[in-house]
Write a structure and sequence with these properties.
This protein is α+β, with helices and mostly antiparallel strands. About 45% of the residues lie in helices and about 15% in strands. Strands 1-2-3 form a 3-stranded mixed sheet.
């Protein structure tokens, strides 16, 4: 997962590091950014607070859309079971 650095240096993380790992490193690093490395240790980019916030917002939006989809599925299932709502059998 994550690596260690000296104060003022980059902290290096692999892509498998968690959002929490990256946030902790960004908050504790003097530069406020974290270098990201690939599986073989090659440099792939930098993560900073803005990148982390964008990731959190994207995850929240995905969760919100999943929840709305699930609510619709539940409403459809209820409508199929309940008589008089157009989905169930009459007299059931």
């Amino acid at each position: 997962m994550g690596g260690r650095g000296h104060p003022g240096s980059f902290f290096f993380f692999t892509r498998e590091a968690t959002l929490r790992d990256a946030l902790e490193a960004v908050l504790t690093d003097n530069a406020g950014r974290v270098a990201v490395t690939g599986r073989r240790g090659e440099y792939t980019g930098v993560v900073d607070m803005e990148t982390l916030m964008n990731s959190v917002h994207e995850m929240l939006e995905e969760d919100r859309l999943d929840a709305m989809e699930h609510q619709q599925e539940l409403a459809d299932q209820r409508a199929e079971r309940e008589p008089g709502t157009g989905g169930g059998e009459a007299g059931a």
